[in-house]
Amino acid sequence: MDWSVPRPGHRSTRALRYGTIALAVAAMLCAYIVVVVTRADAAETLLSQGKPTTASSAENAATPAASATDGNTGTRWSSAFTVPQWIQVDLGSAQAISRVGLNWEAAYATAFQIQTSNDGTNWTNIYTTTTGAGGNQSLTVSGNGRYVRLNATAKATQYGVSLWEFQVYGGTPDNPGTCGTANAAIGKTATASSTENAGTPASSAVDNNLGTRWSSAASDPQWLQVDLGSSQLVCGVTLNWEAAYATAFQIQVSANGTTWTQVYSTTTGTGGTQVLTVTPTAGRYVRMNGTARATQWGYSLWEFAIRVGGTVPTTSDTPGSPSPSNPGGTNVLLSYNKPAVASTWQNDVNCNPCSPDKAFDNDPASRWATSSTNGWVDPGWIYVDLGAVAQIKQVVLQWDPAYAVSYQIQTSNDATNWTPIYTTTTGKGFRETLTVNGSGRYVRMYGTQRSNGYGYSLWEFKVYGTGGNPTQPPAPPADPVFPATNLVWADEFNTGTLPDPAKWTIDPGTGQNNEIQYYTNNGNVSITGGSLVIEARKETQGGRDYTSHRMNTSNKFSTQYGRIEARVKVPKGNGLWPAFWMMGTDFLQGRPWPYNGEIDIMEILGRNTNEIYSTLHAPAYNGGGGYGQKISTVDLSLDYHVYSVEWDSKHMTFRVDNQVILVADKDTVETTRGPWVYDHQFYLILNLAVGGDFPGPIDATTPFPSRMYVDYVRVYK
Prior knowledge:
Blueprint lengths: L22 H4 L11 E2 L5 E2 L6 E3 L21 E2 L6 E20 L4 E9 L6 E6 L6 E20 L6 E9 L18 E4 L21 E2 L6 E20 L4 E9 L5 E7 L6 E21 L6 E9 L23 E2 L6 E3 L3 E3 L2 E4 L13 E2 L10 E20 L4 E9 L6 E6 L6 E20 L6 E11 L19 E5 L13 E2 L2 E2 L6 E3 L5 E4 L2 E11 L2 E5 L1 E3 L9 E8 L6 E9 L13 E8 L2 E10 L9 E6 L8 E7 L3 E6 L2 E7 H7 L9 E9 L15 E11 L1
Parallel strand pairs: 1-39, 30-33
Antiparallel strand pairs: 2-9, 3-5, 4-9, 5-8, 5-9, 6-7, 6-8, 10-12, 11-16, 12-15, 12-16, 13-14, 13-15, 17-26, 18-22, 19-20, 21-26, 22-25, 22-26, 23-24, 23-25, 27-44, 28-34, 29-30, 31-32, 32-33, 32-44, 34-43, 35-40, 35-44, 36-37, 36-43, 37-38, 38-39, 40-41, 41-42
């Protein structure tokens, strides 16, 4: 949803200023988003988004290679005005490639090849053409490799070649070697959520004896897990069920027995002996997580067999080593809330204030920026006083689009004499994690070449190491373990005739985005037949010709992390726009959108109820440029469906029923789009909008009244 809100910073593209907006006006912020990726086949996976991308050249700093794999159709890569030119993406490991999507800008290639490689040096052609016509091309291919390259040898215009998006899809990752046939679980340590009795322990499912079994308590959910003893590449599972089997279950893999990756899921299990091929995934622990039983009894397995094979991917993300998920490793964050000084700083209508301390406050939605009156010059700098001499091991810079191409990280003991400990002339912006080695009380970013005509700006400048005089930031809450089973808040809509005022705040008023309804606090909402009913009507109120309803849990309930879900049946009709979404609670204290963060779990447009959108909004990506995805599925208006997000400090997984819509990974977002602003409390919102920029206009076929039904809303941790 494009609010026409200027970003506080140098480059507001609109003259409007976002002032103080009352909650009654501002609570409706469902995203008007550009479709980032459409998965054409549920068996395919988009492999390339956010992965490291390089090219033979770039036309200028505003069109880098990374813009073709950032999931944003408003940014692009463009090359120098010669051929040949190439762009390649590193998928991180060997993958089976089934399709390549090319979204060309007007400067397209008439002759090109799609190539794969395992080493980035030796290439194999998997597609070749000399009659390329530009536009949107979906190429069915067959090959495998870690690197995928488009190699352009002839161009259609006097310019170079340019891609809005370069998308690589695949199915099962290419597994070096074959999946073994031996049962790697035999004799390994097995544990379970419960046992029916002493005669059916977890160990009986891994003893290679079909005459013994594990069985659980007679409730949902229940799980059985095996410790393989070391990290293995899990590629297959065989479940030999007793009569008490699971109709719905997941196979999950973990490196630590705490954080789990789902590699198989079903809601139509049939029992018997199930031989499952799963996405090859490295892990030490393997779990069967049962969520629905076929009988009144529990779950029971004669044997839980695990097949492994291939090579375990290597990773630098080990305890004590700096990595995206472990910034600083065993080092300490030294810079939090420490005094800061900068060459200049901005304090005006677009950024008030963007003072130096904002880069060290551990708040990813506030930033430092050089002054718009005298700071758009080189050099520009900012430094932090650590309070005492420290050993500096790592620096993390989360750049605003006004980043440094050339800069140094410097240290000093007196804030006068500086020693460089890191130098680059190829800064790329977004999040840069720098391994350094130096000492000093003061640490400075000293920029000597800007990326554009504006100044320098950092959302966060974090310094890790030992010594200094650190102040530790508030401890974050623990991440939930998924599947989360502890129900912490719910509304089943089974009692009364109106929403429970202890749980919901009614939110009347007009909407945004050129919507045409007026949200009322009566008449348009009821509880009927065990469901909340939100009704859009053709009637005049509040100066509008249509009415509807919006409600939220502001000041009643909020959450940080968990599984948030609602079972909803949506209406069909041009111009209708049902949504289930969340807003950061700091919005209620005056922080403007999108700095508070917005999480859109479900948006559906009545003109096409076979599509669902999920989107994130933050200062650096919002409105039409939100970080989101749509997926095509069944007609969602015909029945109730469960819309959910599983959210922790590292990622969010959005689903409709059991189908994944979007996986938003914090590391990927920060290194390709901008800060992750979701590590705080959010409240829930339900509404049905009419008309507006995103859903388009109503017409004579739009039914009124139209109703959105909500069976329940639940939050688990």
